[in-house]
Amino acid sequence: MTDKPVLELSNVSHEYRGRRGIFGQSAPMLAVDKVSLRVERGDILGIVGESGSGKSTLAKIMLGLLTPTEGEVLLDGRPAGSMTRRQIAERIGFIFQDPYSSLNPRQTVGKIVAYPLYLRGEGTSAQRQERARKILDIVGLPLRFFEAYPNQMSGGQRQRVAIARALITRPKLLICDEPTSALDVSVQAQVLNLLLELREEFNLMYIMISHNMGVIQHMTTRVAVMYLGRIVEMNTSKRIFEEPRHPYTQLLLNSTLTVAQGAGVPDLKVDTAKREAMREHPSFIAS
Ligand SMILES: Nc1ncnc2c1ncn2[C@@H]1O[C@H](COP(=O)(O)OP(=O)(O)OP(=O)(O)O)[C@@H](O)[C@H]1O
């Protein structure tokens, strides 16, 4: 066991290069701007921010799917840039918002779940299937689904398949990008509670990316608030919700409350005029 953070980002930036379209080259886009954070044992780190704030770009950098244009990513104290995709995948798994599009519709659930083991060349086919059966049981899916196809399942069941597939290789950290936002409200809590139970069983850490402040409050131990590619506030979940310090965090919480009071789905879209005013405010973005 090591006491180094499982994941550490130091001053990480990512700029999408301008794309060439029919109207010429578009301007480069700084989607992530000097982000530093660490994920340590026991953490469930929430990342919140409105659409376009850079959350998914940050997740892709953590998963090694994008190379940062600046800064350093360390996994277990080693530069992620010197690791293979496979070495990264051994440490970090992920689940995305829409379980349907992330599951191969032509493969049975058993094959989908066992596939990461096949890619790693682990065990015989029979051993891989046995592990897939076990993990499906752990995520609460009856064995009859082993031979089923994704289109024969509900959204919540498909997300359980995605979770099983992510966990079969036993990563330490799971990145969950809006894991329940495509699900019916009635099954959202079941999936979130399953993730919390699995945390105990697998000794897992999570990064939970969500627009839904209810999800963030229910799930996380710490929260990073992103705005225009930067982390403007990071604190324990309790402090973020009880004493938000940054004006943008306060704005997010207020706008969430307003929507929630109207019984709608909490959403982080904030008022554009207020946003522009805050962008002008010189002290708005913490350096
Ligand atoms: N491939 C790309 N090329 C150019 N710009 C991109 C690309 N992908 C994302 N962007 C831009 O980078 C910024 C950050 O996008 P990103 O998807 O990381 O935000 P997000 O916070 O995850 O948003 P959402 O919650 O809507 O998924 C946005 O302005 C987006 O338009």
What is the compact description of this entry?
By secondary structure, the protein is of the alpha/beta class.
> Beta-sheet strand percentage?
15-25%
How many H/I helical runs? 11
Mind telling me which CATH architecture this is? 3-Layer(aba) Sandwich
**CATH fold name, please?**
Rossmann fold
CATH homologous superfamily grouping: P-loop containing nucleotide triphosphate hydrolases
- Unreliable runs, pLDDT <50, ≥5 residues? 258-287
The quaternary structure here is: single chain
Cα-atom radius of gyration: 20 Å
Care to count the β-strands?
12
The total number of structural domains is 1
Name a few traits of the molecule.
AAA+_ATPase; transport; P-loop_NTPase; Rossmann fold; ABC_transp_ATP-bind; alpha/beta; binds adenosine-5'-triphosphate; ATP hydrolysis activity; 4-stranded antiparallel beta sheet; 287 residues
Please tell me about this protein's structure.
The protein is 39% helix and 23% strand. By secondary structure, it is α/β, with parallel strands linked by helices. It has one domain: P-loop containing nucleotide triphosphate hydrolases (Rossmann fold), CATH 3.40.50.300. Strands 8-9-10-5-11-12 form a 6-stranded mixed sheet, sandwiched between helices. A hairpin with a 2-residue loop joins strand 2 and strand 3. The C terminus is likely disordered. Bound molecules: adenosine-5'-triphosphate. The site of adenosine-5'-triphosphate (ATP) has 11 residues, from strand 4 and helix 1. The site of adenosine-5'-triphosphate has 11 residues, from strand 4 and helix 1. It is found in: Cell inner membrane. Keywords: ATP-binding, Nucleotide-binding, Transport. One of its GO terms (molecular function) is ATP binding.
